Task: structure prediction
Amino acid sequence: MITTSDLRKVYRAHGRDTVALDGVDLHVRTGEVYGVVGTSGAGKSTLIRCVNLLERPSSGSVQVDGRELTSLSASELRATRRSIGMVFQHFNLLARRTVAENVQLPLELTGLTRRERAAKAAELLDLVGLADKARAYPAQLSGGQKQRVGIARALAGDPKVLLSDEATSALDPETTRSVLQLLRELNQQLGLTVLLITHEMDVIKSVCDSAALMRAGKVVESGTLNELLARPGSELARELFPLGGGTPVAGDEPLQGSTLVDITFQGDAAVQPFISQLARTYNVDVNIVGAAVETIGGRQVGRMRVALPGSFEENVVPIGYLREQGLQVEVAA
Ligand SMILES: Nc1ncnc2c1ncn2[C@@H]1O[C@H](COP(=O)(O)OP(=O)(O)OP(=O)(O)O)[C@@H](O)[C@H]1O
Result:
């Protein structure tokens, strides 16, 4: 649904060049929620603004729903942008307009009658759970309600794609959860493809099907959450699902001289029988250092860190046994 190829954006200011995007290839499939995460300055905002050409890339291509946006004329681009909704961190609502009028804003140049626009706004406000706030003004709403209005407005043109620029960054954790839940429902009910940027791993964990990690203008890692969790050495997987503790340090006698192994299992697979079989078959004392189960992308994922006595070379066979059982096994230290 969204594909960027070798996307570059260089800002020129005060005689200096800043490379904000340095050859970004991104592929967002139809109907998925795709999150781009990265620290401040990584290029996330620039990327999302290049996807609807609010920012014109210096080079590279942007395809949305099969259309190459960089080669459209100004009027074609205006029309195409209507099918790409966008929500913003600070909502960008007009203070002097009512909630319903804010939602109708993108429909004003579309040839719909006043009555049709009002009916559409009412339908969208109902969809985001704010049917009773149509006549209120933005100042009378909470942050979460303002963002719901922002989302309703973004949906006014019946978009196939919704871009979300840190939509929950200004909200408290509980409101964040409810707005993310709304995005998920809209994704499922309307088949909406959602591309969101965030600096919070929790957002990725709770709502995304796929994710990309950006650093210094580049996508350094990407994939579905399941792929990432199954990828040895994945930085995103480590951040999605940190397994604290267990790194052997001087004086930490029980772990000294042992091999730490991280085991990831998904769905209903239970790791416990494998551990006891491993202990029995190979006569090793398996020390469970840490374990956790979390819901990631709507699926149960478990991780366990175990310590096997001896060096890695001494544990090649037991580690191979765990891998043969279909578990994802990564040697941590
Ligand atoms: N209009 C601009 N003019 C000059 N440099 C810019 C402009 N917009 C962004 N930059 C620079 O481009 C780089 C990427 O910025 P961008 O805002 O895309 O990153 P980000 O990952 O979204 O960060 P943040 O989370 O802080 O918004 C930064 O070095 C930034 O200073």
